[in-house]
Amino acid sequence: MYGRRRGTSAPRLHHLALRVADCERSLAFYSGLLGLTEVRRLHEGDAIRAVWLAAGGAVIMLEKALRGAGAAAGSGHVLAFEAGDLGPWEGRLAAAGVPVDDRTEQTLFIRDPDGHRVGLSVHRFPPEFFT
Description:
Elements: E1 15-19, H1 23-33, E2 37-44, E3 47-55, E4 58-63, E5 78-82, H2 86-95, E6 102-103, E7 107-111, E8 117-121
Parallel strand pairs: 1-4, 5-8
Antiparallel strand pairs: 2-3, 3-4, 6-7, 7-8
């Protein structure tokens, strides 16, 4: 029913929007702790409505409000970032007072200030995943 259509390429991740209670607090986590670069800031009056961050070839949007239907807060999803080595991340997280909620051999799971699950993973996908 949903076979791949000829003449169209598979879509790439464009952006992921996360509803956050406080854009500045979330910016400190994603930019200050994780090292993502702020690329845009949107205001509503004097307040920050959204902050956008570069994440590889995609953008993470930290938004005070999201468009469309959904839960009123947080999510059940995991936003996972590629990490070079988990050891240094464990030290950085501990120094920042961010607890590791769970872990596998290849991924650390933490929470952002709004409770979104965030993964830091050393797992490498085989190249054929992307062809």
